[in-house]
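Ticket #4471: structure export looks truncated?
Reporter: QA, pipeline team
Priority: medium

Steps to reproduce: submit the single chain below to the structure queue and open the exported record.
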Amino acid sequence: MRYISTRGQTPPMRFQDAVLVGLAPDGGLLMPENIPSVTSKLDGWRGLSFVELALAVMSEFIDDIPSADLEDLVRRSYAGFDSEDITPLKQVGNIHILELFHGPTLAFKDIALQFLGNLFEYLLKDRDQYMNILGATSGDTGSAAIAGVKGKKNITIFVMYPEGKPSHLQELQMTTTTDKNVHCLAVDGSFDDCQSLMKTVFNDLEFKQQYQLGAVNSVNWARVLAQVVYYAYASLRLSGSGERSVSFSVPTGNFGDILAGYIAKKMGFPIATLMLASNENDILPIFFNTGVYKRSDVHFTLSPSMDIQVASNFERYLFLKLDRDAEAVRRFMQEFEKEGKVVLSHNYPVDEDIQAVSIGTQETLDTIAGVQRIQDYVLDPHTAVGVAAAKLIPGEGPVVCLATAHPAKFPEAIETALAGQEDASVLDALKHPRLSKLEGLKSKSTQISADLDSLKKYITQHALNRTAEESE
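Actual output as written to the record:
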């Protein structure tokens, strides 16, 4: 399997190189040359554990890592999860909740970033190389990436986040990690500012090469690949012997999570409707309902991980939607960067596989309160957006909502929704030992302005390099 850029001006490369490159040198995102069909294999995969299925799915896309090594990477990546099922399914009323928050940082990002951290370590050791990781986060990616690479040899990580915008506990999960290879950067701006800075730095090929920069954001294909697995796992569990398909409601801001579901569907897994659920940052619902992709101002909400206007993984979807026409993708992205608006289609809906809706703050709060009152289950505000969307969009077959974070990460939003209720189940949901131990710990972060010079200066001063490494 080789990987090509969505903008068509980067030579094809193998999986290992795609992982280490992250963002393609031409500014595009890397995609597999083809999406393999696995329809004939589904019956044999239905009884596999999550880890076994992960190995099977990833092997369809990875042919340059020995199978024994890949199996070891996969098994180690999920050994530290709190649930034996890794991503357990819970029925809550007429919706199945896919709990993706049983990893070290209690968010769905752990499923991809535990794997990616181990993969980076494996590749760098094999090649005798080092890497400086640059990432941007609206909340959960940063802590999950840090958990995946902290203390690892040959890796230093720089994580940018919008100052004051993640929840208190999300920020503590990042800033209380004191390993010397971890740098948290509080940026005076929005997540979109952080993401723009990251992409600008990666597009400076000389700087990128000089400091051996790598990516952990979902611009890295390995992130998306790891997320395909839980769609495969849930759809095979709920589709019976294959006579029905499963619909998924996906709270999403950067489009990476729902893109993984889109790819799983293209591979042949029994998936019907993909419900795209956003908060007030509704650039994606507007697009899928009107064909207009238009940048707007970022709204800061109770679901901060979705407070995004420019969805980086949308370019991968666009590449598939435009039949892999890299020139058309390049024109679209250039027009969007210049004008902030592009009209793709006058045919609605834009894609019959994806239905999209925006959920407001009050509806999010009402959903948290209603599900707790009727089902005695506490949703985090992001998952509540997905559950609310599932009630508005008709889905074929069983409906699964992705639970993207543990509710204990967002106590303020939960307490607002439940108006001071002291039910025992609520109090339990607002506690988690991984989070409780964060309060009072030493915290470290560096404030920087949202400009390229400030970021480059910090990287230059703190980046890992071969000379520094060999002097230790």
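Status: closed, not a bug. The export was complete when the record was re-opened. Leaving a note from the reviewer for reference: Residues 253 and 308 are 6 Å apart (CA to CA).
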